Sequence to fold (316 residues):
Amino acid sequence: MSPLGDAALPAWLEARGVLLAAAARVDPPDDGRGSGTRRVTGADGRSAIVKQGPGVVVQARYGEALRRLVPAQARVLAQSIHFDEPAQVLVLEDVRPAERLDALFDAGRAEPGLLFALGEFLGAVHRTTANEAPLLVPLFPSHELRRRHAEALFDLPFAPGELSIEPRLRALADDALAARGLRERIAELRTRFEASRESLVHGDPSARHVWVQRERPRLVGGETAHVGDPAFDLGLALAHVHVQRVRARDSALCDACEKALVDGYAPERAVLERARRYAGVEILRRALGPRRLLLLGTTARAERALALGTTLVAAE
Fold:
């Protein structure tokens, strides 16, 4: 089946009992999600998110696994309304009205309790699915989207001359990567990321994927979910708290949010240490990647992010 175009979406949804096609409106979502995602709003104001492409199969399986294994925690996810696996179409609850966690950080309104709940969710999912990991592995095979995600995180930012960035920042990055065994640390984490089959992980619980609805977190995404290293999820969540420090946000609030996230997760020491290194890699990626100025605003902040990421990856 070919991808559904905007004109065909309302009738397709009506045929499946999701909403009435008459006067339905099809829009890109307002949160920057990919080109295969649409918000469809019916004449009565009800809306749904429609995602298309191979990644939705992984996202749908992630949700199904959580509803089966950790039903209480599965309520954190945007709920599935309809899934057509052969057509690669997933219809999800529209979590609006809600605010993204990164916007709340920008406004100084992020609450530590939200981070505690996110950590609690990730910890419960990881601990419970560890018992089912061998059975889950076949449901989450490696795929192109996950490969590109890993490449963007572990490879491209650190390849000499791969990315065109400001000369001073490039020189600082080259010095940092050449010293303190940083490239080797990053390579070790990549190997761990590829080889681990410990728990079911979301793959990208970054602040832009966390929405806050009635003072509780709702997690969207999941196209890169896989059975892997639980420290990876915790690390990416931690990275986006650390990024707020680089952006000169309230340091006391950042400290409280970091503590709440870790307390909610309650990781073993080895998991937390590895999570902090993954966080460092993510921060380095954000400092050196093509969207660094969109996130960080200035080259000076990118330089501060480089220093912070280096410290986290190199920590003993």
